[in-house]
Amino acid sequence: MTTKQAATDEVLITRIAQGDRVAMQVLYGRHHVKVFRFGLRLVRNEQIAEDLISEVFLDVWRQAGKFEGRSSVSTWLLAITRFKALSALRRRKDAELDEEAAAAIEDSSDDPEIAVQKKDTGEVLRRCLTSLSPEHREIVDLVYYHEKSVEEVAEIVGIPENTVKTRLFYARKKLADLLQAAGVQRGWP
């Protein structure tokens, strides 16, 4: 994100704190896709991720005056999203277990379309990513998909920077092992 973009987001937050609805619409338009995607990766349910968007931006509307500017606005939004997602996961712990058990049942009869998809490198990578622990998956998501720095990830997740670096190291190592076991060689496109 450029310095001009960040400054613009901060101006929007200031205007939102003063009750400017147009500023809220602009901020929402600029960031709702990122918030949705990050929330979806955490909760793995589109409906809950949609609900998270509403909750996050409602909090922004209510709490804009409390934004201290210690991080970028997008980092602040992702931190709120993470908190809301973890709360949602705690509320639906029983339902999550049922979905995980159902997803763990493997269908041994693949049709030709599924067989082709299994060979697709992107599909293999996504499967390998879901095999990582939630902590490692979250770090990889923030660093590679949201292009956050180690410092920003530490702030979002609420852990020391060295812990972020350690989790990222082990996540990469585990991912490399999983990809190699799946037949994907280094240097793939």
TrEMBL record:
<dbReference type="Pfam" id="PF08281">
    <property type="entry name" value="Sigma70_r4_2"/>
</dbReference>
<dbReference type="InterPro" id="IPR013325">
    <property type="entry name" value="RNA_pol_sigma_r2"/>
</dbReference>
<keyword id="KW-0805">Transcription regulation</keyword>
<feature type="domain" description="RNA polymerase sigma-70 region 2">
    <location>
        <begin position="27"/>
        <end position="93"/>
    </location>
</feature>
<dbReference type="InterPro" id="IPR007627">
    <property type="entry name" value="RNA_pol_sigma70_r2"/>
</dbReference>
<comment type="similarity">
    <text>Belongs to the sigma-70 factor family. ECF subfamily.</text>
</comment>
<dbReference type="GO" id="GO:0006352">
    <property type="term" value="P:DNA-templated transcription initiation"/>
</dbReference>
<dbReference type="GO" id="GO:0003677">
    <property type="term" value="F:DNA binding"/>
</dbReference>
<dbReference type="InterPro" id="IPR013324">
    <property type="entry name" value="RNA_pol_sigma_r3/r4-like"/>
</dbReference>
<dbReference type="InterPro" id="IPR036388">
    <property type="entry name" value="WH-like_DNA-bd_sf"/>
</dbReference>
<dbReference type="InterPro" id="IPR014284">
    <property type="entry name" value="RNA_pol_sigma-70_dom"/>
</dbReference>
<dbReference type="GO" id="GO:0016987">
    <property type="term" value="F:sigma factor activity"/>
</dbReference>
<keyword id="KW-0731">Sigma factor</keyword>
<dbReference type="InterPro" id="IPR013249">
    <property type="entry name" value="RNA_pol_sigma70_r4_t2"/>
</dbReference>
<dbReference type="Pfam" id="PF04542">
    <property type="entry name" value="Sigma70_r2"/>
</dbReference>
<protein>
    <submittedName>
        <fullName>RNA polymerase sigma-70 factor</fullName>
    </submittedName>
</protein>
<keyword id="KW-0804">Transcription</keyword>
<feature type="domain" description="RNA polymerase sigma factor 70 region 4 type 2">
    <location>
        <begin position="124"/>
        <end position="175"/>
    </location>
</feature>
<dbReference type="InterPro" id="IPR039425">
    <property type="entry name" value="RNA_pol_sigma-70-like"/>
</dbReference>
